[in-house]
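Page 42, continued from yesterday. The earlier attempt failed because a stray header line got pasted into the input along with the sequence. Redoing it now with the clean sequence only.
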Amino acid sequence: MWRNADILDLVGWLRNYTSQLPGLIPKPGVYGLDLYSLHASMDAVIDYLDKIDPKAASQARERYSCFEHFGDDPQAYGMTASQHHSLSCEDEVVQQVAELQRHAADFLSRDGKIAADELFFAEQNARVAQNAEHYYRAMYRGRPSTWNLRDTHMVDTLDNLFQHLEQQGERPKAIVWAHNSHLGDARATQMGERGELNVGQLVRERHGREAVLVGFTTYTGTVTAASDWGGSAERKRVRPGMDDSYELMFHDVGIPQFLLVIRRNGDLVEELKPAHLERAIGVIYRPETERWSHYFHASLSQQFDAIIHFDETRAVEPLERTVQWQEGEFPETYPSGL
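This time it went through. Structure tokens are written below.
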């Protein structure tokens, strides 16, 4: 999702922009919200403690060594630990978060703002390890449980980041870049009917009119996605929007790309027909089963505050092109075939 040319261009532009800002102006940053980095986050906690408290680092290593029996595959851990609490590492990851918080004042007394930033990052990585441990155990209990854990973790991370920046004297704003299924209010979709919440819903509930939810739609084009979870990235042709879908409705407008403002300052300004089909393409795209695997009913007027529609989109280009992605290229004569 992130190792592609578009993100590389964005980060390069952002670095250049930031380097030209006057010294006293707060610099924009890029932060991760997800919880898939179980082992990387544990390593980050240990690296932090190695620099400031070797004894505490040794204790952290001992706690996190609980995961060594399962190798580098967190799903293998989840499958085993879900069978009985005694097989899990839950107590160890909870203890590590508590330990960092207990010694926070001492750690902060060392290097001012730099110390505060480094402690915050270490605490967040410890929380990632704690929540990821819970997430992988919950994988074997069903989708609503894991989905809700993951999206709640994302919003908690966002709120923790805001609190940290405010303590530094900043007045932060954030752009959260994620899939429509995370950012649109779940209560306006079939997700809510299944008992699933998401980032958009939680942000609206916690921050009200301060939040603006923006979704993206497309009618056709290409997409970089896999055929199965964990599969290789492929370049696939996106089928035209189906009948009774918002995608077809926007295509019929006849404008190649546009911004549609649905709500302004929380008030509805544009009512769209409810209960249309809406398409969701994530890391997986299966055109052959598209209706059942990628469409759901939603009320766009309640789901988002604004929509950006691109009638035709182009697949992001991976930094490392696989054979499968290359084979997805269309000839220069496409679609005439001459």
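Notes: The mean pLDDT is 89.
Reminder to self: strip header lines before submitting.
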